[in-house]
Design goal:
CATH architecture of chain A: Up-down Bundle
Oligomer: heterodimer
Strand order of the largest sheet of chain B: 5-4-16-15-14-6-7
Radius of gyration of chain B: 33 Å
Keywords (chain A): Cell membrane, Membrane, Transmembrane, Transmembrane helix
Number of helices of chain A: 18
Largest interface: A-B, 50 and 56 residues
Largest sheet of chain A: none
Helix content of chain A: 55-70%
Largest sheet of chain B: 7 strands, mixed
Number of domains of chain A: 1
Distance between the termini of chain B: 125 Å
Family (chain A): Belongs to the NrfD family.
Shape of chain A: globular
InterPro entries (chain A): NrfD-like
CATH superfamily of chain A: Formate dehydrogenase/DMSO reductase domain
CATH architecture of one domain in chain B: 3-Layer(aba) Sandwich
Strand content of chain B: 15-25%
Radius of gyration of chain A: 24 Å
Number of strands of chain A: 0
Structural class of chain B: alpha/beta
Membrane topology (chain A): Multi-pass membrane protein
Number of helices of chain B: 34
Organism (chain A): Pedobacter rhodius
Number of strands of chain B: 42
């Protein structure tokens, strides 16, 4: 294998010594094959209480009507669609990591794609619940599907962005699920092979008879690539279409051509933040520091700076265009955002999304796990406010001043949102218990070429350029999972 | 023969054993053990396999059958004997009158469901006000009594009669007085009944009082001209109107009629003839009339008298003392200007005053005489009979009762415990009367203290007549059989008087047939058909004023000084507002939810304060304050900041704070009647109070919370001078035009194209269209809390915007207004806003399920059954006219003020479906009326004519501000109106192609006189 050595300049993707294929399997399947620890139980209790709150709040809404939310004649959407867009946005990182980074051969994605994809699926589920629950008559939600029917062959309105939305979200969900599940097959087979009794039977069914033959692997690779190809446009299309819910309207503050790219950037921004929020904890609790390394964290932070800056530019562009358009309604909408009754939400958004992510330019912050974790939450708070600002502050003061109104959430609004977070974490924690949170097969792929021990061996073989080696060793300083003293000797 | 071969199924059949014969009759040879299975023992036994299968089969079958019934079945039963005049689905119209106003009552299958103005009423056909429109709901009020009540127990009419007769006889023989207390009675038949009653009981006397009194004007006319009448005012003959606190477009005497007269000189037809009247208003509280004035000057209540003296002096050149306005330079200036203009417009001018003070009204008479109003704009010879109450007489009654001289008192259409100067005292003295009888339809504040409640019919169940003006009579006829065990008050009186004719129908008919009809050569049926009878009007003579005004001026100055106490004393005005008026209809949910035309507040009254004055009192909007009068009466009410309110004054609406009116009206607001004071022989509606904050906070339910139009093109206005130069002034139309590009292809629109034109110069903002629309379209009443959440369901609303006059032009933007120091000079515009039926409707493109679509005749349809309730259409509506059913308002116990019982549901218009929760709704352009009109034309085999179809809002409008019709017919009224240069479309620039054209608001602010 020495002919396939990776450049010593590349930072290792797996750290630690004595990492073997067996150890990888053991490490990653630890949470799946053992009883849950205390941390998991605490998390699960909180999350499931949240999920219960969601059930209560949504049932209350269904029983009493949408009137139990704080909406009014002027503001017809608020926390509901804010929550919907927020969740769809969060889902985006998963697809980007699994599909786009795969196509670009970014091997570092191998350790994080599984969790990110799971997150995508759960986030889209949360988003989809909003689609149904915000309807006045949710029991008729299927009417937005172009189903053959006996209502006098009523059809849907293909002009309506909500119909596009329905297509976008359902396509996105099915493709993501398929992609995720395909990737899971070899890992489920691994669990199957190690399990006994009923567990073995169950995993056996879900592994679809994976045999691990060369032909299977070859087909697996081919399918993964094809699915990556299908998913890639979805990264762009889903949030583009979500943004069209607003962009195709006539409401000042919504009617903007900048929305599609701006929404996509925002979605990736929030998605990566959510991946960080989840994995920084999971890494520690599940002891996966060797597989999700500082390199991964730093890379994701870099993406956050980039997308955060794109979003910032978009905010400024909106303001410029509002002024440049000469349209008084447009101008008022933006002045009202920043100085009107909801000024605090606008500045909350600006601070969280534009100003605070700039701190990541500092390497120290970028490499601090605590700072990163806090910033990842700040970003998602900011992204929630971004959607709130777009939806509520545009609606609450649109064209006719007599109808201007304020929106005040009720306990049900808040509970549905907080509950959806509970639902999300419940699903995610269950996922950690039954499926490997890191793609075992894909990580194993990296062991021989991109792991720290492989590189150390390379160095010890002494064929590498001394300067490069020095640079490599220097780059290892940031890793919290590397024994630095090993390198002091060299 | 082969077929006769008989097969047998077993030996039993072959042998035909008796057992077999017996069992063969049944379907199953062996009896099924159903009883065994279903009784308790059977259920607890171990079920054998076959029983299990049976039970399974039965269960499945039963569940299937039970599941087949998808919804509860409401049976509609056809008429067994069909009444001749009732055809299901076809409405009948009957003439009647409401408060002297001639109306048509629309009934469907025997239920009155809608009130329309009577087109036969000629000059008195002035639309209908909100009260008339809403009155149909009162018929179906569940808070009414269902049977007469004697000593707090339901009873029979026989018992009531014997009780009342014996009590009346006792009073009569005991030398005690009998008093019939009524609000003004102008019905000739009722008066004849009362005459018969008095003939039987000579101790009886009719005491008339009005909750809001016009005694001042009546007595002033007696004093000045020897005629104790309320004159007929002709605003249509006035080119210049100067009003001192008279809300003549709203609550003063006869608002609808004055609105029709007033707008005749200001609407688009008048403007096309280059004619527009001018209107100057001096007032303290912002009234509906004040919002329509060309020039409005806030004056304190104490300045009203001096202002009138100043005006008199300026017109006549005399020097009555007390005409100085040292603290109100603007008023002083405008008075001088007005005087010049009045003199210039001699014979075409009118001065009115809302005061109930005799001296003040004498002075107004002098001014009117000086400007030649009598015989032109004021007609004393054909007076108005709507109000004839006498304040002093009422006070005399209280004294009599207090002295124990009254043996029996009867209350007809009156509730003095609630709506008089001192209800508490009245209740106290009432206790001293041995026999107390009320004709109220519910146990209201007065009736609940009475011994007997002889419940009266609703007017829609009654016979009767009205005589609103000299020579103008209208009929009241029943449109439904009495729903409850009520009896018409007149019939009760006739019964108690042992009159020969007790049946009131016979009585009314013979009264007309003997006294009125022969002279006119009319038959009874003609009257029923037309609803009105007019006797030729007498010529209106000119009257001159020749009395000395010295004493009058002294009295005015003294009253003014008494009011202007200064210190912590605030001048308080209590007034009637448009929805509640005197509070008689406080249980009407439509009226409670009708926003006040000026403040847009529903379901409450409040203390209105000027912004700067509130700052001075250190109170903010919605702070609860204690208002305490000189007589010690105090109430806690929230503050409303009212631009245009005179500094140092406060206003509180009457008609609130009812305690015993019913579910909807009980405890709404606070009672302000006790703030009335009795000065110089009349009730005065201005008094002194102190206002102190309580520290509480109470949010009023307003339908509009932003009050400036931010300089937007939504409102376009011009002055009359600009209009004369360029009729298109202010519309934003430019000479070169503007090229529009469409995203959509143009479609041919053959047939009809329904559109509307709304004249902002005619609309006074009164809101009767809102109630008319509510009744016509079954619009839910949502209650105070839901209005606070900004969820009222009105399909048509009236947007009211304030802008502030400054030397450099009007300020309309919130942020600039915040910087202004002078917030007194407000100009107001009212804009009816409803679905614009856009040709490029933004709502239609975004609906995912095609629940809102365009029709071929230009309407934006809403298919409730298809709506899933995403609310995207409402978000995307630039006019924000779509309304969402947040709850099942018409069938949800939390909204228990309107339709939550089967009885009140009878008011629903069967042509319009009620909407379920989760469904969007909005103005349908009364599509049921359009379809009905088309159908009628089709049945009559004729093309549809312009004017065949009228919208509910349009029909109710006294000002004719709403014109509806077919844009494809170039000769239709609406087409002509839309060709007016004043037409503009709201938010034209976003190219949604709205179907409703608005005509610019024109203000006649330029004066021809140089000050």
């Amino acid at each position: 294998m020495s002919g396939h050595n990776e450049s010593i300049l590349r930072e290792p993707l797996i750290t630690g010594d004595n990492i073997t294929y067996a150890k990888i399997t053991d490490d990653i399947l630890g949470p799946v094959e053992n009883k849950p620890n205390k941390a998991w139980w605490i998390g699960f209790i909180f999350a499931s209480l949240g999920a219960l709150l969601w059930v209560v709040a949504v049932s209350y809404t269904f029983w009493n009507g949408i009137g139990s939310w704080g909406l009014n004649k002027t503001v017809g959407w608020a926390w509901d669609i804010t929550g919907f867009v927020w969740w769809v946005g969060i889902g985006h990182a998963g697809t980007l990591i699994s599909a786009v980074l795969l196509l670009f051969r970014q091997n570092w994605r191998n350790s994080i794609n599984r969790s990110a994809e799971a997150m995508t699926i759960f986030a889209v589920i949360c988003a989809a619940t909003y689609v149904v629950s915000h309807m006045g008559r949710p029991w008729l939600a299927y009417w937005v599907l172009p189903l053959p029917n006996q209502f006098g062959s009523l059809w849907v309105n293909f002009n309506s962005p909500l119909v596009w939305d329905m297509f976008a979200i359902s396509t996105y969900f099915s493709v993501s699920l398929l992609f995720w599940y395909t990737g899971l097959l070899p890992d489920i087979a691994t669990i199957r092979d190690r399990a006994v009794g009923t567990r073995r039977k169950i995993y056996s069914i879900f592994s679809f008879g994976w045999s691990g033959s060369v032909k299977t692997w070859q087909r697996f690779e081919a399918v993964s690539l094809i699915l990556a190809g299908i998913s890639t446009p979805l990264v762009l299309s889903v949030h583009t279409i979500v943004s069209m819910d607003f962009a195709t309207s006539v409401i000042p503050g919504w009617h903007t051509t900048i929305f599609p790219p701006y929404f996509v950037a925002g979605a990736i921004f929030s998605g990566f933040a959510m991946v960080l929020t989840l994995l920084l904890v999971a890494r520690k609790v599940l002891g996966l520091e060797n597989y999700i390394t500082m390199f991964h964290i730093e890379s994701m932070n870099k993406i956050i700076i980039l997308t955060g800056s794109i979003v910032g530019v978009a905010y400024l562009t909106e303001f410029f265009i509002a002024w440049y358009s000469g349209s008084e309604y447009e101008q008022y909408a933006f002045i009202n955002r920043s100085t009107g009754p909801y000024w605090w939400s606008y500045w909350m958004m600006m601070t969280c999304n534009v100003i605070s992510p700039q701190l990541l330019w500092f390497k120290k912050i970028r490499l601090s796990i605590k700072a990163t974790w806090i910033l990842s939450i700040v970003v998602n708070v900011g992204m929630w406010f971004e959607r709130f600002v777009i939806i509520v502050t545009s609606l609450h003061r649109d064209y006719i001043p007599s109808s201007w109104a304020m929106f005040y959430p009720t306990w049900v609004d808040v509970s549905v949102f907080v509950g959806s977070i509970g639902l999300f974490f419940t699903l995610f924690l269950l996922f950690l218990r039954v499926l490997p949170s890191i793609a075992i097969a894909e990580v194993k792929l990296l062991l021989k070429s991109a792991s720290e021990q492989a590189k150390l061996k390379q160095i010890k073989e002494g064929h590498e350029n001394k300067e490069y080696v020095a640079e490599y060793i220097e780059s290892l300083e940031k890793f919290d999972s590397v024994k630095q003293e090993e390198y002091a000797k060299i | 023969m082969e077929s006769n071969k008989k097969y047998w199924k077993g030996l039993e059949e072959y042998n035909n054993t008796p057992d077999f014969v017996k069992n063969n009759k049944n379907e199953f040879a062996e009896p099924l053990p159903i009883e065994d299975v279903l009784n308790e023992a059977g259920l607890s036994t171990v079920t054998p396999r076959r029983d299990f299968l049976k039970a399974l089969g039965f269960g499945l079958g039963a569940v299937t059958l039970a599941a087949c019934q998808s919804a509860p079945v409401h049976k509609s039963i056809p008429y067994l004997v069909k009444p001749e005049e009732v055809t299901p689905g076809i409405p009948n119209y009957y003439t009647s009158s409401f408060n002297g106003q001639s109306i048509l009552v629309k009934t469907r299958e025997g239920r009155p469901i809608k009130i329309e103005p009577n087109p036969n009423a000629g000059e008195f056909n002035c639309g209908t006000d909100a009260r008339a429109q809403a009155s149909v709901l009162d018929l179906y009020d569940v808070s009414k009594l269902k049977a007469p009540v004697l000593k707090n127990e339901e009873t029979t009419w026989a018992k009531i009669d014997s009780f009342v007769k014996s009590e009346l006889a006792k009073a009569q023989t005991g030398g005690k007085k009998i008093r019939l207390v009524a609000s003004t009675v102008n019905s000739p038949s009722t008066n004849a009944v009362i005459a018969q009653f008095i003939a039987k009981y000579p101790a009886a006397k009719l005491v008339q009082y009005d909750a809001v009194s016009y005694t001042g004007i009546i007595q002033a006319n007696q004093n000045s001209f020897g005629k104790a009448v309320l004159p007929k005012y002709n605003f249509d003959k006035a080119d210049l109107i100067v009003s001192f606190g008279a809300d003549f477009l709203g609550t003063w005497i006869s608002g609808e009629e004055f609105t029709a007269q007033y707008t005749a000189n200001r609407n688009y037809k008048s403007l096309e003839n280059k004619k527009m009247s001018r209107h100057i208003q001096f007032e303290s509280g912002m009234s509906l009339t004040g919002t329509n004035a060309d020039t409005r000057v806030p004056v304190k209540l104490s300045e009203e008298g001096p202002a009138l003296i100043a005006l008199y002096n300026a017109i006549t050149g005399q020097t009555l003392p007390g005409g100085a306005l040292p603290n109100n330079g603007t008023a002083d200036k405008v008075i001088k200007l007005a005087a010049k203009e009045l003199v210039q417009n001699k014979g075409k001018a009118l001065v009115v005053c809302g005061s109930n003070d005799v001296s003040t009204q004498i002075l107004v008479n002098a001014i009117n005489a000086a400007i030649g109003s009598y015989g032109t704009t004021i007609d004393l010879d054909n007076p108005c009979y709507l109000y004839a109450g006498n304040d002093a007489e009422f006070n005399g009654l209280v004294a009599e009762m207090g002295r124990g001289e009254v043996g029996a008192v009867l209350f007809l259409n009156s509730n003095p415990v609630y709506d008089t100067i001192d209800g508490k005292k009245f209740a106290d003295v009432l206790a001293k009367v041995p026999a107390k009888i009320s004709f109220a339809d519910r146990a209201d504040e007065t009736a609940s203290l009475c011994d007997a409640i002889a419940i009266n019919h609703n007017y829609l169940e009654s016979w009767g007549d009205a005589n609103a003006y000299e020579g103008y009579y209208s009929i009241v006829q029943p449109t439904i059989n009495p729903v409850f065990n009520s009896r018409q008050a007149e019939e009760s009186l006739l019964t108690w008087a042992d009159a020969p004719v007790k049946d009131y129908y016979q009585f009314v008919r013979s009264n007309w047939e003997t006294k009125m009809l022969p002279a006119l050569g009319l038959k009874w049926n003609d009257v029923l058909e037309k609803g009105v009878v007019k006797v030729a009007a007498k010529p209106a003579a000119a009257y001159s004023f020749s009395l000395s005004l010295a004493a009058v001026a002294t009295s005015i100055v003294n009253s003014s000084k008494a009011l202007a106490k200064g210190g912590d004393q605030v001048e308080l005005q209590v007034y009637e507002n448009i929805p509640m008026r005197d509070g008689k209809n406080a249980n009407n949910a439509f009226l409670q939810e009708l926003p006040d035309p000026v403040s847009k507040v529903t379901w409450d009254n409040y203390v209105a304060l000027a912004p700067k004055f509130a700052e001075k009192l250190k109170v903010k909007e919605f702070d609860v304050v204690t208002v305490k009068g000189g007589n010690g009466y105090s109430i806690d009410l929230p503050v409303l900041i009212q631009p245009g309110q005179a500094q140092g004054t406060a206003s509180i609406a009457l008609g609130y704070g009812r305690e015993k009116v019913g579910k909807a009206g009980n405890g709404v607001g606070k009672n302000a009647f006790p703030f009335i004071s009795f000065v110089n022989g009349t009730m005065q509606y201005a008094t002194n109070v102190t206002i102190t904050p309580t520290g509480g906070y109470y949010e009023l339910a307003q339908t509009q919370t932003h009050h400036s139009f931010e300089g937007r093109n939504v409102i376009r206005e011009a002055t009359f001078k600009e209009y004369l130069k360029n009729p298109a002034a202010g519309t934003g139309k430019s000479e070169e035009g503007h090229k529009n590009y469409d995203l959509w292809d143009k479609y041919e629109q053959p047939g009809n194209s329904w559109v509307m034109a709304i004249d902002l110069n005619a609309c006074t903002g009164c809101g009767s269209c809102i109630v008319a629309c509510n009744v016509e379209n079954n619009i839910p009443v949502v209650g105070r809390d839901e209005v606070r959440r900004r969820r009222e369901m009105h399909w048509i609303r009236i947007d009211r915007y304030y802008s502030y006059e400054t030397p450099t032009g009007d300020v309309t933007r919130e942020k600039e207004i915040a910087k202004l120091e002078d917030l007194d000079h407000v100009s107001v515009v009212h804009q009816p806003m409803l679905c614009q039926h856009c040709d490029h409707a933004p709502c239609e493109t975004v609906c995912p399920v095609l629940a809102t679509v365009h029709s071929s005749d230009g309407l934006n349809h809403m298919a409730y059954n298809r709506c899933v309730g995403t609310r995207y259409c409402a978000n995307n509506c630039p006019y924000k006219v779509r309304r969402f059913n947040w709850f099942n308002y018409w069938n949800d116990s939390r909204f228990d003020n309107y339709l939550n019982n089967e009885f009140t549901q009878l008011v629903l218009n069967p042509d319009v479906t009620t909407r379920s929760r989760g469904v969007m709704e909005k103005c349908s352009m009364c599509i049921q009326r359009i379809q009905g009109g088309k159908l009628k034309a089709k049945i009559e085999k004729r093309p549809l004519k312009d004017g065949d179809i009228k919208m509910a809002c349009q029909e109710a409008c006294s000002a004719n501000a709403i014109i509806f019709g077919d844009a494809n017919d170039p000769n239709s009224e609406v087409s002509k109106a839309l060709r007016s240069e004043r037409i503009y479309y709201v938010l034209e620039e976003i190219n949604v192609k709205p179907g409703i054209g608005y005509m610019t608001k024109i203000r006649n602010t330029d004066t021809t006189v140089q000050a």
